[in-house]
Amino acid sequence: MCIVLFLVSFLVATAEGSRDAGLVTRVKETTVSHYASPSELNAYWQSVFPNRPIPSSILDHLSAPSGDKMKHVEKEHYWSLDSDQLTEGDAKIFHNWAHRIASEKLLYPETMFTIGSKINLYIDRAVALHSPYLRRDIANSIPMSTKNFTDITAMFAPVSLSMARDMWSTLSSCEHPREVEGEQKACTTSLESMQGFSSLALGTGDLRAFSTSLDVPEEGISSSSQRYEVAAVRKITPRAAANTVTCHSMSFPVALFYCHAVNPTRIYEVTLQREDSASIPEPRTPAMVRALAVCHVNTSGFDPTLRYWVKLGLKPGEASVCHFLTRGDVLWAPTWAT
């Protein structure tokens, strides 16, 4: 509740024009004129990964509107009153990864990824899928912290309460201590910093980037009553296990990814066919889906109180934990591992 009151107070103060004039001038320049252009981002990608395709989850940000055009459409396209990131029931700010991993319906044992298995398919929605990238020098100059929340939010004024809550949640997630033993994490605000963190975490610059299929809707998939049958499974990382980095697109007016590595992992492309047992299919349940799944092999450092373990009758370390990637996620893996 105190967080909500703080946000309301902030919005009132903003409306009354209490922002520092020097800051407003600097930030306005950022919001209007310092986005990375598609040609700049394409040139950077080709310089680092020549002749390698750009994943669709990165391309979506390259075609994003910016400046005044972005301000005009962001409420409709980038922000939701039904945000998954922070609700009134979640008065305390929580780590985004912990939020995902605490929801048992998003998690699967690796044994389910075999042909003929039947599952209720849940893939989280993609957030801020079309927010534009900042230029690297501008992104590096902005301290992304809740301590600078007022300054950061002023960059995107006018800001609704829903937008402010999403932004606070994202910044808090970036500051949260590591939730899983051995986890490496960073929040990246430019394409270059995302590639840089992935290279550092994986110990090589020779990387491949992947995104899940366009079969997966932006709003995700939720099949509570209808089941899907696994029709095909392809290993993206053919070896027994490999180190990878997953970057999740976060709720923010500009492209901001929560990147983390909980290794080792196994990566699969899973093709699923919807069972048409009902006369009218559920909403958000396409007939066929190809989706990327990440399986965390070493789960000994995971929270033993998760309902996932209770459901399986197991303890952390006794089974892997798998989840599907959203349309907005980017997976990085060493070339040799794919």
UniProtKB/TrEMBL annotation:
Membrane-spanning residues: none
Residue ranges occupied by any BURP domain in the UniProt entry: 107-335
Origin: domain of life: Eukaryota
One Pfam family per UniProt: BURP
Origin organism lineage: Eukaryota, Viridiplantae, Streptophyta, Embryophyta, Tracheophyta
Signal peptide positions on this chain: 1-17
Name of this chain's protein: BURP domain-containing protein
UniProt keyword annotations, A-Z: Signal
